Amino acid sequence: MALTIEEQIKAIEDEIAKTQYNKKTQGHIGLLKAKIARLKMEQEKRRAASGGGAPGYSVKKSGNATIALVGFPSVGKSTLLTKLTDAKSEVASYAFTTVDVIPGIMYHKFAKIQVLDLPGLIRDASKGKGRGREVLAVVRTADLILFVIDVYDTNVEVLMNELYNTGIRLNTRPPNVVITKTDRGGIEVKPTVTMTKMTKEMVADMVAAYGHVNAEVIVREDIDEEQLIDVLTGNRVYLRSVTVVNKVDLVDQAYLDSVMKKLKDHKPLLISANKETGLEELKEAIYRKLDFIHVFLKPQGKEADMDEPMVILGGSTVGDLCDRIHRSFRRNFRYANVWGKSAKFPGQMVGVDHVLSDGDIVTVVVKRGGE
Fold this sequence. Notes:
This protein is of the alpha/beta class. It folds into three domains: 5-51 and 175-233, no CATH class; 65-172 and 237-288, 3-Layer(aba) Sandwich (Rossmann fold), CATH 3.40.50; 292-370, Ubiquitin-like (UB roll) (Roll). The protein has eleven helices and 15 strands. The chain has helices at 5-17, 23-49, 77-84, 132-139, 156-165, 200-209, 225-233, 253-262, 279-289, 318-325, 327-331; strands at residues 65-70, 102-108, 111-117, 144-150, 168-170, 177-181, 187-191, 215-219, 237-246, 269-270, 292-297, 310-313, 333-339, 348-350, 361-366. The strands form three sheets. Strands 1, 2, 3, 4, 5, 9 and 10 form a seven-stranded mixed β-sheet that branches. Strands 12-11-15-13-14 form a five-stranded mixed β-sheet. A three-stranded mixed β-sheet has the order 6-8-7, with helices on one face. Helix 1 (5-17) packs antiparallel against helix 2 (23-49). Mean pLDDT is 86; it is low at 92-98.
């Protein structure tokens, strides 16, 4: 009798668990991981097609960016939301109080930032425990994750692992690898750098194991197996994160020192949402991590408005700016003129794909009458 997808995944995971990792077995383990990734993608497709799982959370995004509060139950996320924003989240001193997603708006340096208070995550949330899949689906849509950790329970790695297992990569960027399907020739690997973590043969074998028959693989950085799997699946999201330790008013300095030592790699901020300690520093850290830039709008034939900047995320294009101004601007876009760091010369005429820099002045020209 044929094995189910779940049974196939379990069998391969068991094989990986009993295989000692070394140079000789590295290629074999990489192949097994690629097969698991392919099976999991198939599993997700079937789950989506059957409408499986509990109803998800629907949140309309607003503001210049969205941040998600992620933490275990009862760590003070709801109190933090209330203190940071204009929202009122139901707060009580027992677990699982927040049963829906509560949005609020935080204002800082002209930026309007949406903050989402989510139900607490628990171990194995990525496998569906505690409505974890629905919560993590909302987390994937955020621009930044704010880990909220209780001073008495600082195991932030559990939360990070749950996010990792659902395809969220923190404080990193997509691997510089491009896989292009071809008509013939099998799998051809073309590295532009010296590869020390994998061989060309391993890359080719993993790409084939994932289901590609003919493809050109351009490798522009020294990747490992996990990074190659991220490229193969193509469904990873790359998000920035900030970690805070809450309720620091409940412990003494010696205990705090031990917490900071344990979490030194995460460089957490110390706050007390209840006492409103450290919240201004947190707002500034969020603002910096989101890498906002200010651009100034200049109506045609008029002076630029240098008092009220438009706040957009770093790396945004003229098209993104159009979306922020009005939903019709991109549709009716003709061209834009740009003055500033991103322009080759003052008043350069650019299209929607032009990437803007901090301090740029922009005139957007649209079709008259929305023609």
